[in-house]
Structures are given as structure tokens and as C-alpha cells.
Write a structure and sequence with these properties.
Strand content of chain A: 15-25%
Structural class of chain B: mainly alpha
CATH architecture of the largest domain in chain B: Orthogonal Bundle
Number of strands of chain A: 23
Distance between the termini of chain A: 24 Å
Oligomer: heterodimer
CATH topology of the largest domain in chain A: Rossmann fold
Protein name (chain B): Sugar ABC transporter permease
CATH class of the largest domain in chain B: Mainly Alpha
Helix content of chain A: 25-40%
CATH topology of the largest domain in chain B: ABC transporter involved in vitamin B12 uptake, BtuC
Helix content of chain B: over 70%
Structural class of chain A: alpha/beta
CATH class of the largest domain in chain A: Alpha Beta
Shape of chain B: globular
Number of helices of chain B: 14
GO cellular component, one term (chain B): plasma membrane
Largest sheet of chain B: 2 strands, antiparallel
Number of helices of chain A: 16
GO molecular function (chain B): transmembrane transporter activity
Strand order of the largest sheet of chain B: 1-2
Subcellular location (chain B): Cell membrane
Number of domains of chain A: 3
Number of domains of chain B: 2
CATH superfamily of the largest domain in chain A: P-loop containing nucleotide triphosphate hydrolases
Main location (chain B): membrane
């Protein structure tokens, strides 16, 4: 018989200007996988931070195993048996696995003993990991294993996982699920946060759905469709992007043997990438983060020069052409990192509109910036892409992630590029905004532009791509028509499971 | 518990208020330091800030204000571009010396020419070039060998200082100077003299250049793409790269610009108020200009005002040394405190203080 492990009652937490959680109540049973669903900004993070002792709720109570539970800090939460795997890893690249694990412990045992324990736990749960490897050399999936094992060493009663699969290949996801199911069989409860509804249907026993900080419903995920869950999250009907098949056009962008060293340490070099994109086509490039996505975008945007012939625009070699001249030709790009790369955090939206729009929108005359024109351009972007902000004179940092993403993508699309390259166009964007961004990308392609979408969201790529290719350790697979590709085939293209094995459930 | 909370937008009011507040706090703490030295604090502060403008001998000191403020403003305007872009030229003092040496050297090469229309403009070009070349050394080293421009530019100050000594005693020494160190006095060389344009105002060509630099910098920063790129490069280098700003070019342009203006300031100084290439020619304008640039919020108009304020502390400081026997280092401490408190108060522009229990994000 199941017993209630953690009960939340009436949790409320307000920040200046926004109520992150309002009167949230639900229960997590022992040995269940409990999904927490909601759009960005629905209050999921604040809620789990309250449970993990990072945030003190304004009101409401929590009970752990029937006892009042008020963790003052994460240390207290960990002592009570709560562990958390964050979406962003807190690992030191230059240290090895065992050293990284030791750093997170209050009283670390000698490194040799710890290494042995890491080996035991990793084998027991089917997460093989060599304790002596340097973290900087690990793939994202392997880094996540370090974080999971760090948690498992504490023998947790409740394991919180924040978007764990966003960095994994489908095969790695399956292996992670085996591990989680094994933990569940041992009686560990798992609080699982994700946007990916199909995963939740496959894994979770119950789901609590948050919208604007409030619980708006719960369900048994296997009994309802993904679409129903999405509509509960959004609170309306979901618009699915549609596309009209365009005629096959000329080759606009061609990469020929593109190889380049990464400008960053621990970056991935690009290795002999060759591909063509035609007018009206969307090429989807999938792959787990850190496999050369950033480098590919830099090579295309012009921030990272390459040999001239490696990048060709309408037959013209442009490998050495700098960013603004590429924009002038008609090649625009939107990098993944919104704040600090695609946009300057402390600059206004007007200034950020001029940042990449100055060339194609003719915003610089005789060296002087036409700020009036930049402001007009910014307000057109805000208007057309439904960017929620008080006005063009607000700084980029003041916008929420999703709104800034709409601004950044809108800025490039509204320049009417002939080739558009976007990296993670809908990362961290809520479902309805993501649908709008995808539609805008498809509309641009329908008008005859060639589009490259680099993304880790395979559902997104399958939805909007004509051709699909996978980036793995800096190599690009041969593109294949997206229609008819199965998720297994995609997984194999992504480089399979990075040597993971399925948990020994009988161990 | 007191916590600092990041403001969603930098506070406009605080960015204007903090220089004023820094001046006031400096006056209070400076007064305490003077009192600890056994000097009357109120009188000392009054001597520094009030007497040069409105005291008994104000008519003598007021022109000095322009003379001292002009090089500070000219150098600080140049530095402000680099500082905004995250390029730290700490060696303006050296570039200032090199500008003076180039300018004076050119003038003396033409001695005793009477063609002012030729010599004086050429001196301006030579002085500017001298500072520019000196600043290009840390610039090129950084671009090609990834050296740190802070260290290289600072160390080149000492090299320039020794060059100045060598020139004053050697190559540029006055042949008619009975063996005393120092060059011919350019004030007695009409073709090269950067004289007062209006008697008893302190107004010379360097002052005009400084005002011109303020206006040009203002236009450049607010309207021109270069100013935009400078701000972008300073705030987020990756966004600047995305916007097509070459980081290496930015380093060379910013160092070049600040070096050129510092060199120009040095040339105007040596040809005018100072007159002579002497070992004691430089009095730290290049370093004080760093304070001026930050005190003025790296904004041209702010720098204009800060330049006058620092010039005032120079003049008032000398006055306090004479009248109250305050040690020279106490005055330098006082000037340094101004920057120190400005940086401290500056936190309020981006953060606000919250009293009460700790909030955890």
C-alpha cells in the first residue's frame, strides 16, 4: 500500500510584482513518479526550490512522512532525504568525476573509497561512469549521470529532476527511464519536471499541472492524450503550426567540408560538414547540446571565420566574410543564448533592434545611427511577434526569456533574410509562443527562404523540417527527409546511446 | 539582515546622484583625515573647494582652473571610450609625456623658425602621433600576443618617464642653457608657443581642443555607430561579435584614440603652461584623468564637470599645502578617495538595499 511521502498544503510565494505560487497543494506518494507540468513561468521552479530549501514560502505548510517539514537550506533538505538534479549542471570541467562528487558532499570519504562507491552505485543503476574521468571530456548525458549519482549516494527518499531529458538522445532517455523505474521499485519517489508530454505519459504515475502559479488540475498521464495535457497547461486550445509545401528552389547555402576549431576551451570542433539548403526548405539539425551546435552557428553567422570555400552563399564563397556583410547578402542568424549573445542585456530593445538589424534595415547613414528608424523597427517586432513589454525603451534584461526569444527571432525574420539560421528557437519558450515562432519560421520558408533550425527538441524538428540531419561530435550526418523518420532512426543518427546500458533491473 | 538586490533596470536617479554623494562623502571623510593630521578640517575643505574660486586671490586662481582642467578633460574623454568598451588604458601619463616630447621635439627641430602657420599645426600633429604610437604598443601586443594592456600601458609610463629625463638632460637640452637640464622655453619661441588666447582667462588652444573633444565625444556616443559599438563591446562582448564588431579593431581604435588625445594634451601643456621639457614636466594628469573619467560616469558632459572638480582639488590642494602645511600626499589621498567612494556608492545604481530577512533566489 502506498503512503504519502510529501504533502504540500497552501504553499504561496510572491516575488515583487509576481505571485510565483498561489495556494499550491498536492501530495507525493512513496514510490511514485509524479510529474509537475506547466509552461515557463508557471511556478514549477519556485515550487521545487521551496521543497529543496532554496526558497522560503510566504505561507503554507509541508509535511514529510507526516512530520512538519520546513527546510531552512538545501543542506537541511538533503538531510531529510530530498535530492535534486538541476537542469543546469554545477560541475567543474577541470576536475574528475570523483572530485566533483566529493565537492558536493558535507563529509566526503577518501577519494579512493568514494570512487569505489561511485562505481558500485553506477553499476547498480545502469549508469556506467568512470570516477577518474575529467568532467570537461564528458558528454552532456554523462555529466547528468554524475549529477544523478551524486544524488543517489545520499540514498534519497525523494528525487527531484528538473527537465532531465533536454540534453539526452532518445536512447539515453530510455536508459534514464529504466534507472528511474528501478529507483521507483525500491520505493523512492520522483518529482519529475518536464515539458515533454510524451515522456511524461510513458514514465509518470500522476501529474499535477500548474498555470500562473496555481494548480489547475491533475491527471493520470497514461489515461489522457498529450494534447489534452498541453491544453490544460496553456488553458486554451493549442495552435499547431501548418505549412504549405513550397516548390523546390535553388541552392542558397552550401557547406563544403566545413572544419574549424572551436573558439572556446572544451568546445567541439566542426569536422568536415557538407550539406546544402535550397530555397523554401527547412533543414532541421538535431543533436545533443555540446556537439558543435554553437560552433556551427558561429561559422554561419560569420563570427568564426573559416576557409572561404567552406561556406557558400548562392555559389559565392563567404567563409571569410564578416557578420554584417553576410547580413547584407541576405544571411541572418539567431544564436541560442539570448542574453549576452543575441541581445545585449543592458541595452534597450531599440538598441537591440539596431544590433543586428542595422545592415538590412538601413539604420546607419554616413556612420550615424538612425535611432528613429531603429525604434520603429523595434516596435514592429514587438507588434508582429507579440512581445510582451511596456515599450521599446525597456532593457532586454527586463524581458522574460520567452518574450526576449520572440523579439530575437522576430528581429531576424523581419529582415526578410534569404537564408536564416536559428539555434534553439523555442528553448524555454511556452507552448503557444513556441508554436507562433515555428509558424513564423515556416512562413519565411514558404516565401522562398532557406532555413536551418538547430534544435535539441526532436518533436519540434520533426514538425517543421523538410530534411533532418544530426550533429554528433562536430560531424553532421547525411540529411534525410524528415517525413517518415522514426524516433529510433533519429536516435541512431544522433549517435546512439553514448555507450550506456540498460539498468540491471534484477541486480 | 541587509541584502543587496539587483534592480531590474539601472537606476537613472542614482547614476546622477552617486557622483554628488561621492563628493560629499569624500569631503566628510577627507575632513576627518585632515583633522587626524591636526589640521582644521572645515578650513581645509574650504581652502580646497572655495578659496580658489571665491577667496582673496581668486582672480589669480580662476584662470588656473581652465589650465588644469583642459588636459584632464582631454585625456579623460579619450580614456572614456576604452573604459566603456572594457579596454583599460592605464598609461595615459606615458602617452601624455610622449606627446609632449614629440611636439616639443618637432618645435625645437624647426628652431628658430618664424613660420607659426607651419610649426604650430605640425606640433599638434606630432604630439597626437606621439601619444598614438605609444598607445599602439600595448594595443598591438594585446592583439597579436594576447598580453594584458593594463600592465603594458602602465609599465610604458615608466619608460616614458625615463625617456623624458634622458631628453631633458640630453638631446633636447637647451644649448644656451649653461648646462642646466631642460629644453629651450617654448614660451619664448613665438612660432611654437601655445599662448593664452584671451589675457587672464587661462584659455589656450588645449582648452579649445578639450571642449571640442567633449562635443565630438557626445555626438559619437549618442548618434554614431562607433559609439554604439563601443558601448556594445563593453556590455557584452559576444553580442558585439554577433553585431559584427571586431574585438581586435576595437582594442586598437580605443587605445589609439586615448593615446592620441593624451599626446595632444601633453603637447599643448609643454608648449604652453609648462613651456619646457623638464624631468618634472608631468604631474600625474594621465592618472588623475582616470578618476575624472569615472567621476564623470564616462559621459562627456560628466567628464567636463568632473575635470573642473579635479582641477579645483589640484589648485585648492596646492593652496592648502601653502596655507595650512597639509602634506602633498594628503591631497593625493583626498583625490583618490573621490574615486574610491564613487565606486562604492555606484553599487546603488544597479542594486538596491533591502533591510529585513534574507530573500533567497
Amino acid at each position: 500500500m502506498t503512503r504519502t511521502l510529501l504533502a504540500l498544503a497552501g504553499l504561496t510565494k510572491a516575488y515583487p510584482g509576481v505571485v510565483a505560487n498561489r495556494d499550491v497543494s498536492f501530495e507525493i506518494q512513496q514510490g511514485e513518479v509524479h510529474a509537475l507540468l506547466g509552461e515557463n513561468g508557471a511556478g514549477k521552479s519556485t515550487l521545487v526550490k521551496s521543497i529543496y530549501g532554496l526558497v522560503k514560502p510566504d505561507s503554507g505548510v509541508m509535511h514529510l512522512n507526516g512530520q512538519p517539514f520546513e527546510p531552512a537550506d538545501p543542506k537541511a533538505a538533503r538531510a531529510a532525504g530530498i535530492a535534486m538534479v538541476f537542469q543546469h549542471f554545477s560541475l567543474f570541467d577541470a576536475l574528475n568525476v570523483a572530485e566533483n562528487v566529493a565537492l558536493g558532499m558535507e563529509n566526503p570519504p577518501p577519494l579512493r573509497d568514494l570512487a569505489a562507491r561511485i562505481r558500485d552505485v553506477s553499476e547498480q543503476y545502469g549508469l556506467p561512469l568512470d570516477p577518474s574521468r575529467i568532467v570537461g571530456d564528458l558528454s552532456a548525458g554523462e555529466r547528468q549521470r554524475v549529477e544523478i549519482i551524486r544524488c543517489l549516494l545520499q540514498d534519497p527518499k525523494l528525487l527531484i529532476m528538473d527537465e532531465p531529458t533536454s540534453v539526452l538522445t532518445p536512447q539515453e532517455v530510455e536508459i534514464l527511464f529504466e534507472t528511474l523505474r528501478k529507483l521507483k521499485a525500491e520505493g523512492t519517489a520522483i518529482l519529475y519536471i518536464s515539458h515533454k508530454l510524451e515522456e511524461i505519459r510513458a514514465l509518470c504515475d500522476t501529474a499535477t499541472i500548474l498555470r500562473l502559479g496555481e494548480v489547475v488540475g491533475d491527471c493520470v498521464p497514461s489515461d489522457v492524450s498529450a494534447r489534452e495535457m498541453a491544453e490544460m497547461m496553456v488553458g486554451g486550445t493549442l495552435h499547431v503550426p501548418e505549412r504549405e509545401a513550397g516548390p523546390e528552389g535553388d541552392i542558397l547555402l552550401k557547406l563544403e567540408g566545413l572544419s574549424a576549431r572551436s573558439p572556446q576551451e572544451f568546445g567541439t570542433p566542426l569536422r568536415d560538414i557538407s550539406v546544402e539548403v535550397r530555397a523554401g526548405q527547412v533543414l532541421g539539425i538535431g543533436g545533443v547540446a555540446g556537439n558543435g551546435q554553437d560552433e556551427l552557428l558561429l561559422a554561419l553567422s560569420g563570427e568564426m571565420p573559416t576557409a572561404p570555400q567552406m561556406v557558400q552563399f548562392k555559389g559565392q564563397p563567404i567563409g571569410q566574410v564578416p557578420p554584417n556583410a553576410r547580413r547584407g547578402l541576405g544571411l541572418c542568424a539567431a544564436p541560442e543564448e539570448r542574453l549576452g549573445h543575441a541581445a545585449a542585456p543592458d541595452m534597450t530593445l531599440t538598441e537591440n533592434a539596431a544590433l543586428s538589424g542595422k545592415t538590412r534595415k538601413n539604420l546607419v547613414k554616413n556612420g550615424f545611427v538612425d535611432w528613429g528608424g531603429a525604434r520603429d523597427f523595434a516596435s514592429v517586432i514587438i507588434d508582429r511577434f507579440d512581445v510582451r513589454t511596456p515599450g521599446t525603451e525597456n532593457v532586454a534584461r527586463s524581458l522574460s526569456g520567452g518574450n526576449l526569444q520572440k523579439f530575437v527571432i522576430g528581429r531576424e525574420i523581419l529582415q526578410d533574410p534569404e537564408v536564416l539560421v536559428v539555434n534553439q528557437p523555442t528553448w524555454g519558450v511556452d507552448a503557444s509562443a513556441a508554436a507562433a515562432i515555428r509558424q513564423a519560421i515556416l512562413d519565411l520558408a514558404a516565401k522562398g527562404a532557406a532555413v536551418i533550425v538547430i534544435s535539441q527538441d526532436l518533436d519540434e524538428l520533426m514538425e517543421i523540417s523538410d530534411n533532418f540531419a544530426a550533429l554528433n561530435e562536430g560531424r553532421l550526418s547525411a540529411p534525410r527527409p524528415a517525413k517518415g523518420l522514426t524516433i529510433e532512426e533519429v536516435g541512431l543518427m544522433l549517435g546512439g546511446a553514448h555507450d550506456m546500458e540498460v539498468a540491471h533491473v534484477d541486480a | 539582515m541587509i541584502t543587496l538586490e539587483r534592480r531590474p533596470q539601472p537606476s537613472r536617479a542614482w547614476s546622477y546622484l552617486s557622483p554628488l554623494l561621492a563628493v560629499i562623502v569624500t569631503m566628510i571623510v577627507g575632513g576627518l583625515v585632515f583633522a587626524a593630521l591636526g589640521k582644521p578640517p572645515v578650513e581645509a575643505i574650504r581652502t580646497i573647494f572655495w578659496d580658489p574660486l571665491f577667496g582673496d586671490f581668486a582672480s589669480y586662481f580662476r584662470p588656473q582652473l581652465l589650465v588644469k582642467a583642459a588636459p584632464l578633460i582631454l585625456i579623460a574623454i579619450g580614456l572614456s571610450f576604452g573604459f566603456r568598451a572594457g579596454i583599460w588604458n592605464i598609461g595615459a601619463e606615458g602617452q601624455y609625456i610622449m606627446g609632449a616630447l614629440f611636439g616639443a621635439g618637432l618645435a625645437l627641430a624647426f628652431y628658430p623658425s618664424e613660420a607659426r602657420w607651419l610649426v604650430f599645426p605640425l606640433m599638434i600633429v606630432a604630439g597626437t602621433l606621439g601619444g598614438l604610437i605609444w598607445a599602439m604598443i600595448p594595443g598591438l601586443l594585446r592583439v597579436y600576443f594576447r598580453t594584458n594592456e593594463i600592465l603594458v600601458s602602465l609599465m610604458l609610463v615608466y619608460v616614458a618617464d625615463f625617456l623624458l629625463d634622458a631628453m631633458a638632460l640630453g638631446l633636447l637640452r637647451n644649448p644656451d642653457g649653461m648646462g642646466f637640464p631642460g629644453s629651450r622655453n617654448l614660451q619664448q619661441y613665438p612660432a611654437a608657443h601655445n599662448a593664452e588666447l584671451i589675457a587672464n582667462t587661462g584659455m589656450h588652444w588645449g582648452v579649445i581642443a578639450a571642449f571640442f573633444a567633449v562635443v565630438a565625444a557626445y555626438i559619437l556616443l549618442s548618434r554614431h555607430i562607433f559609439g554604439f559599438n563601443v558601448r556594445l563591446a563593453g556590455q557584452s562582448p559576444r553580442a558585439a561579435a554577433f553585431a559584427g564588431v571586431s574585438a581586435d579593431k576595437m582594442v586598437l581604435i580605443c587605445l589609439g584614440l586615448s593615446g592620441a588625445l593624451a599626446g595632444m594634451a601633453g603637447m599643448f601643456e609643454v608648449a604652453g603652461p609648462s613651456g619646457q621639457v623638464l624631468a618634472s614636466f608631468n604631474v600625474g594628469y594621465g592618472f588623475t584623468a582616470i578618476i575624472v573619467a569615472f567621476l564623470g560616469r564616462l559621459h562627456p558632459v560628466g567628464i567636463l564637470l568632473a575635470g573642473f572638480l579635479m582641477a579645483l582639488t589640484y589648485i585648492g590642494g596646492e593652496l592648502a599645502q601653502m596655507n595650512l602645511q597639509l602634506p602633498r600626499s594628503a591631497i593625493q589621498l583626498f583625490q583618490g578617495m573621490l574615486l574610491f567612494f564613487l565606486l562604492a556608492v555606484d553599487v546603488m545604481t544597479n542594486f538596491r538595499i533591502r533591510f529585513g530577512r534574507q530573500k533567497v533566489a
